[in-house]
Specification:
The protein is of the alpha/beta class. The chain is built from 26 helices and 19 strands.
Length: 722
Amino acid sequence: MPHINNKSEEEIKSLFRVLEKESSMLQTMFDSISDLIFCKDLDLNYTHCNKSLLRYFRITEDDLIGKNDMDGLGVTKEVSDERREKDREVINERKMLIYEEFVAGADGISRIFETNKVPLLMNGNVVGVMGIARDITERKAMEEVAQNSNRAKSTFLANMSHEMRTPMNSIIGFSELACDDEIQERTKEYLNLIIDNSKWLLQLINDILDISKIESGNMKLEQIPFDLHEIFIACKTLMAPRAIEQNIDLFFYAEPFVGKMLIGDPMRLKQVLINLLSNAIKFTTSGTVKLAAVIVSEDGYYSPKDDKCTLRFEIKDTGIGMSAEQIEYVFKPFTQADTGTTRKYGGTGLGLTITKNIVELMGSELHIESQPNVGTKISCEITFTTTDLEDDTLRIENIISTIEKPLFEGDVLVLEDNHMNQRVIVEHLKRVGFNVELVENGLEGIESVRRRIESGLKPFDLILMDIHMPIMDGIEATPRIIDMGVSTPIIAMTANVMIEDVELYKKIGMKDHIGKPFTSQLLWSVLLKYLKPVRYMEIKEPEINQEDEEFKLQLISDFVKGNQNRYDEIVETFNAGDIVLAHRLAHTLKTNAGQIGRFALQKAAADVEISLKKSAELPSEKQMNIFKAELSIALEELKPYLIEKSDDQSDMAEVYFDKERAVALFAVLEPLLERGSPECLKYINQLRHIPGCKELIEQIEEFNFDIAADILKNVKNKVEGS
């Protein structure tokens, strides 16, 4: 043994003391950590651990050190094999593994741990495995609570969407129809305010729904062929009225394609463009707003041989502009560039956030250039896959400064069970030239299609399908109609337009959807996708329709006549065990009460509806009493109008009866009733002048056209024989 002098021995002892001190400090640190810390050698036997691990399993170091998982911790062979497999992966591949696992403690209760394993190195060589396991049971529980809360929020938003869109369908629809009438300017101004604020409220709902989808990761993009020019036309149609109102010149330009269509999500692209245009118009008091889409390539030319195309979208305005500091804030949810912006211009502050996220989903990003009091330019470049176009002729629309109303020729089948909604959609379709056949459920719709096939008539040009109907709903009816070999486009007409709903509609064969509420221009844009108009008509002044006032008053009449016994019907239906029908009756009454402005009754009916949906018991006595009282008040207040109208009609029939004109009217009415066309509704006022037509009028008002046709024959025989 070599000689070691005293000085060297002292140095060695000092070194050992330092090492012992550092080892003790390190062990103290390990033992103070609540996570479970351990080391294993290359044979996967434990070499070190901290006190937290010993406490969790209620063992000593002697029980664990030098032993494997089965012998030291008493785990099952299955658990031991899983851990050994992961340990070998860490050692052999020199990699870090992070995974979650259930670990049973000494009390037999399994908790969730996040385990992090890394190779244990010495002089660059792997000598084992080091692991740290953290108890994340409470964190996972909180995450589950958050996820459940998010799911509940999504469910609430879906229900809210349906409940709010349904009455708004009538608010917007009837207000637009009323604006077409010959009314006082002040009344027209009030109606336009109703329309504008209803559309604004609808946009708030849509924004909240979209931001919820983005936050939950549920926003998905479609990949379908579309025509960019059609999107520009739709944007122009929606934005032009606001631009004209603010005296802003609106310009659109899209480069033409030859023999190709883009593949992507046209609905979301249109949403992006409308959001950006809406902002540009909102923050521009005068001047211009321009939207352009140009092809991005080295030579500025797109070849039909290419299978991809990059487009640069650019929206420029001469509005109030933003500073560099303000631009930083505009993409944050519920935030606008300036604290006073919301008060002055309105909005949720969600538009640009939603737009930014959609553009990023499309693989691009938004760029903003702006100067205060000069204007703003927002741009993005999006790459689309392309597909061949069967018809090489693409419509390239010229920019127009007026709104154009399309006029069609053709037959539309409408499936809708709510009478108020029937009135709205039928009137809108009539005004653009369609003949309408109306049915109240999917089974009747199937029969209407079958009758056409069997009689050799041309198919319907379009089918508008409500989703929720009695007897047979739209989900069941659509595939059955398609199975009949009918190629007529079927369009969903519903307030349920969440992404999962729309995906279901497409899956069963529906071509498109119209959300409730809808505006006339939104309806036109969908119609133009599938049908070619015979001509366009410029709208610069409101159209005058002499039947409008009678049409609107008839809605009140329908409500009163149709709900005289509604309270008893709901109670009797529930007592008979048909909760679904009782719920639907309350839902329909709630919607229709809102349409005629009886909001107290609407609230009372909504409370009954919610109780029927959630419980197998009849709503509380208090709820039913309030509902009954509000219904009685509404019916009583509207009753004098009906009595007065009925008396007048009786007098008119006796005084103004003209046999020759009556026979001519019957000749016009008879084929309409045979076809089941709602066009016959506009002749009701003339029928009131003819004795014996009371029952005929009632059946027409109830849309019982088959019964009305039989009654007309009897009335006709009596009049001709008189």
